[in-house]
Fold:
Amino acid sequence: MEPLTILCVASYHKGGEFLREAKRQGARVLLVTSESLRGADWPADSIDEIFYVPDQQKRWRLDDFILGASYLAERLPIDRIVPLDDFDLEKASALREHLRVPGMGETTMRYFRDKLAMRMKAQEAGVPVPAFVHVLNDARIRDFCARVPPPWVLKPRHEAGTIGIRKIAGADELWAVVGALGDRRSYYLLEQFVPGDVFHVDSIVYERDLRGAVASRYGTPPFDVSHSGGVFTTCLLERGTDQEVTLQVFNRRLLDALGLVRGVSHSEYILGEDGTWYFLETSARVGGAHIAELVEAATGVNLWAEWAKIEIAGGKTPYETPRFRPDYAGLIVSLARQEWPDLTVFDAPEVVWRLEKRHHAGIIVRSERHARVIELLDAYARRFVDEFTATLPMGDAPAD
Structure:
């Protein structure tokens, strides 16, 4: 029997465990990646063939990609197309539509990539979102500014995470920025700035059924870390608390509304100071910034591997939901002044993972007790600031 062929698309170096698990499941694994990543440490023993696309800062010409993949399909049947990063969702969905390969098409893809589309869809389903307006029609923008007091947040519709987001203090600044955007203004939205605590939920979905989800709370919100520097932290919520239960229900409602059929999702929410939960962002991918390692440390479940199993099952065969271990874990990551910071000084028995990356420091702590994780996270985060933390301008910060 011919093995299932999975074409993985990765403009960034990530998803190694997806590639390994797909190969363990018996699939033929093809990888299309950026020419600039030719020397990256891909798991070569799990990849049958690898193809490189000329790129300019990881950006590909879509037509070149579709033509190249179509040429490849002349000799190898392509059964699945999987984007391993946010920036690859459009490419993968366009190629699925072109080759008529099953999976998320371009319309549904927008709900997990386009910040304007996901907000509109959530709002239509009655899911609370911060007030927003498309940066397109002058009259509607003026009406928004009259109704919603500043500050506001200007967001590019198709960037990942906090890239390109900026806070706007008032109307004069806004119109100056909009003028500078020129013909690109329609690629942005303007949103009410909602102060509050930011949370994320990392989910597994199969045939529209939410099979597992892990709810966590950020320390300093990602926007603040990326713009002001400091230490990035996140920690699983204590299970069964009002916050955790409410957030799980809110997340299920959101994924149902956006129509995720199968795969994984990283979604972000804010609990406003007014006590209201708001939807912020979502994606059809594994969370970045080592959140996958956080989830695995606490639960024993590797989201990359589960995603590979789901893609192979493809709605045709049963998918066995993994058992989630009920431990807790917390993550700390920071840029470091030292080229290779010494992380062995963090020697509590609860430390289960250390980041090995130039000019970065990162650890994960795990415990059966939520209070112990919080205690270690607070103490270690303060030490990170004193011993390691460095900052880079936004444009120079490396991708996760």
Remarks:
- Confidence is low (pLDDT under 50) at residues 394-400.
- The chain has twelve helices and 16 strands.
- The chain has three domains: 5-103, 131-192, 197-396.
